[in-house]
Amino acid sequence: xxxxxxxxxxxxxxxxxxxxxxxxxxxxxxxxxxxxxxxxxxxxxxxxxxxxxxxxxxxxxxxx
Length: 64
What we know:
- The protein is mainly beta.
- The chain contains no helices and 5 strands.
- The chain has a single domain, classed as CATH 2.40.50.140.
- The protein has a 5-stranded mixed beta barrel.
């Protein structure tokens, strides 16, 4: 599991970005990648990564 911080999340459009704490890399997250609950800017989260259509996405995202 990776840990990171939600950099941006638009609830209306259903997507955003998470910055990985270890690598400082940003990962795209879609609302379908959330593991229950909602996220918002500055939330600390755990997530996994998975290859998507346009690059690596954050999946199984949950607040910690």
